[in-house]
Amino acid sequence: MDALATGHYARVTRRKDGRYRLLRAADHQKDQSYVLSGLTQEQLARLRLPVGGCTKADVRSLARRFGLGVADKPDSQEICFVPGGDYSTVVERFEPQALRPGPIRDLRGRLLGEHRGLARYTVGQRRRLGLDGGDAWYVVRIDPAHNAVVVGRRDDLACPELVATELNWIAVAALDGARRVTVRVRHASADVPAVITPAGEGRVLVRFEELPRAAAPGQAIVFYEGDSVLGGGVIEEVRLSGLEAQAAG
User: Which of 2, 149, 202, 244 pairs as cysteine with 240 (C-beta 3.0–4.6 A)?
Assistant: First the structure.
């Protein structure tokens, strides 16, 4: 295969030294560089992203010009390859244990209610918890060992630092020292400034200068320098703050 073209909103360029760079899309509202951060130099060399320099309006205009039926198709807001966007039916088929009911507890261990299966919840979630009274509750931790959802207040979601692993460096061959970057911990989240430092054994320590919320183990994390993707990895450990740290201790 000589090349692969996709409709992702991102850009690939090649530096004079031959190294490929992954850049944000020209349309930052549609940028998908976060989901491409695991691509290697060999893969980027063969990747073509023809819409990366366009806005979504540009793409729709081209589709109308060429008579394509998708010109006015609504944007997808869910998992595009799951019928109806209901991922729980897929989970039920392949991992039914993830939909077993279990306890919802606060950070002090008090029982507040019952959840409908861990697969239906994510860190940072506020809606559809079914809890009564007081200020809003947020999911701060998923506890598979006890089939429990742990909830707290908004401030309990703050993350001062974390450790990432399964790293893939794009703009550099490796991280050789502390580096100031901006970080994205979710596809739809805003970048936050941080300092990243090698932590040994193929890991990196991320210390945030502005605390992000709802970082969780297993999520992808991407490091940016301006529009360029420095690299990315997977969150291994979230260092806790506030009451959540006390509860974990």
Answer: 244
pTM over 0.90: no
Report CA-CA distances (Å) from 197 to 34, 93, 162, 188, 248. Answer: 20, 41, 11, 25, 25
> What pLDDT, in 10s, does the model give residues 102-133?
999 999 999 999 999 999 999 999 988 988 76
Residue 78: CB atoms within 10 Å:
10
pLDDT of residue 85: 67
> Under a CB-based contact definition with an 8 Å cutoff, are residues 98 and 116 in contact?
no
If 0-12 CB within 10 Å is exposed, 13-18 middle and 19+ buried, where does residue 231 land?
buried
Residue 27 neighbours by CB under 8 Å, 6+ apart: 9, 54, 55, 56
In the block, tokens 């450790």 appear at: 163
Q: Where in the chain is the domain with CATH 2.30.30.280?
A: 84-155
> Are 24 and 37 within 8 A, CB to CB?
no
Whether residue 54 contacts residue 26, with contact meaning beta carbons closer than 8 Å, is answered with yes
